[in-house]
Each structure stands twice: as structure tokens, then as C-alpha cells.
Amino acid sequence: MTLVSDVIAEGLHLFGILDITEDPATTDLAIGVKLLNNLLRNEQADGAAQYFMQLVNITLPAGVNGVEYSFTIGAGNSFTVNADAVALKSLWIKDIGITSRETRESPMTDVVRTTFPGMITKWHQRRQADGSLIINAWQPPRASFPALIEYGGRCPLLAAADGSDTLPMPPEGVHDATLLFGLRACTAYGKDPNSAGLIAQQAIAVDTKWKQWARGRQWMRFLRS
Q: What does the alpha-carbon distance between residue 41 and residue 181 come to, in Å, rounded to a whole number?
């Protein structure tokens, strides 16, 4: 695992904010941690989720005739699924023997049209103010059933001011995060990122790639439309 302090140091060096022979000062690290945490958990949460994909087996409750069906995904025991998720990517239902039946994401109008119990075939996700997700599904299931979900998780909180937290990403993710951090640090330090030349161009390309990964693959098309 890569230390957050290493990402900060390399980002500051790549963009010429610090000389390659300099180590980040305590203040640099504290500022860098805040910038990187906000970058990965908020601004670039959609793109960063590609490195935090999870498959989880869950049990969904039965629906009620006459009531729109929904379940929640959020960080805490009060949610149907306890997970800090950026978005739901896939939902497979295990209501026909041992077969995992695939469902599809659909517009909200398709999942609230009737409330007669049956089998879930479609779902729609919405972001809530507390960062959780509410998933509306059609039709309300006749009984409780097991299911398998795939979701993009949120980057863990980076809070240690000295940068001693680890960044749980593979090497290619760390590389991209370093470029994005350096680009953001230029603004914080009042430096023109274009002075970094090719490095700045690469960072801008990563910014575009991360945003297009989630939206271009269409699995966040309703959540972020």
C-alpha cells in the first residue's frame, strides 16, 4: 500500500511546487491530506469508485401490495445494506432456485408504475442528502429473497494530518490520483499548472478519463443525469 504522504510529495514534485530535493513540510502534508481526501471522496468519487468495486451477498425484504418497493445502501446499520457506496452498478436476484437472475437499471417512471407483488426486473437509484442510496425496484417481490449486488465504494477517509494513512489503490490508481492531486495543488499554491507542460496534460487526461469511466459506461447515467 502507498502512503498518502508519498502521493502528496510526488504530486508537489511533479508540478514543481516543491523542488525535487525538498521534502514536504508539516504544513504541506496537512494541506495535502485535506486536498486529496476531498478529491477522492467528493469531486472524483465517481471515477475513484472503479478501484473500490465490491460484490456483496444480501437479503432483501418482501414487498407490500400497494406500496412502492425500495431498499437503501449506506454507511450504518440503519440501512438495508451497510456500505459506503457511491453508486449501485448491478443487481442479481436469486429467486429462481440457484440461478442469479440479472436485472437492469431503468428510469424512475418504469419502477413506480404498479405495486402488485411479483419479481424484481428493474430498479432506479437516487442519491440522498446523507450520502446514502435509495433503490426503487419493480415489481415488489412476493417474498424475502437473497440477492447479489455490485457497487462502487467510496474511498476511505484520509484524515491523518501527517499523511500516514495508506491509499488502498492499485499502482495505476495511485499514479492517476497523484496526477490529479498535483493539478489540484497548483490552485491551492497559486501556481500555473501549465508550467508543468506534459505532466499537466497527462493530469487533465486522467481527469477526463475518470469522469468518463463512470458516465461513459452508463452505469451512473440516471444517478448523475
A: 12
Does 44 share its domain with 57? no
Q: Tell me the pTM.
A: 0.88
> Do residue 67 and residue 118 come from a single domain?
yes
203 Cβ neighbours under 8 A, 6+ residues apart: 179, 180, 182, 183, 193, 196
The domain boundary residue, chosen from 101, 125, 153: 153
Nearest by Cα to 215 from 43, 44, 46, 91: 46
Domain end, chosen from 153, 176, 198, is at 153
Please provide the size of the chain in residues: 225
167 contacts 99 by C-beta, under 8 angstroms = no
Q: Judge whether 37 lies within some domain.
A: yes
Domain that holds residue 65: 53-153
Residue 225, domain member (yes or no): no
Q: 147 and 63 in one domain?
A: yes
Q: 145-204, pLDDT tens digit by residue? A: 999 999 999 999 999 999 999 999 999 999 999 999 999 999 999 999 888 889 999 999
The sign of the CA dihedral 66, 68, 71, 74 is negative
**Using CB atoms within 10 A of its CB, is residue 50 exposed (0-12), middle (13-18) or buried (19+)?**
middle
Contact 146, 59 (CB under 8 A): yes
